[in-house]
Amino acid sequence: MEALYLLIPLSVVLVFAALWVFFSASDSGQFDDLVGPALRVLQDDDKPPLE
């Protein structure tokens, strides 16, 4: 029972920290373009190197 006095506040703090990290990443524009990097991988750039 005494372990719950430590684990419950610790889990609440962990949830709020995870929410803060998610919303700060969302506000900074981390999730603005989710399709662009996936399409950039498919572009063909097999040009010979300039020598």
UniProtKB/TrEMBL annotation:
Pfam families in UniProt: FixS (PF03597)
Keywords for the protein's UniProt record, in alphabetical order: Membrane, Transmembrane, Transmembrane helix
InterPro entries in alphabetical order: Cyt_oxidase_maturation_cbb3
Transmembrane segments: 6-23
Keyword Zinc-finger appears in the UniProt entry: no
Protein's UniProt keywords contain Ligase: no
PANTHER family in the record: FIXS PROTEIN
Protein name: Cbb3-type cytochrome oxidase assembly protein CcoS
Lineage of the organism: Bacteria, Pseudomonadati, Pseudomonadota, Betaproteobacteria, Burkholderiales
Gene (name only): ccoS
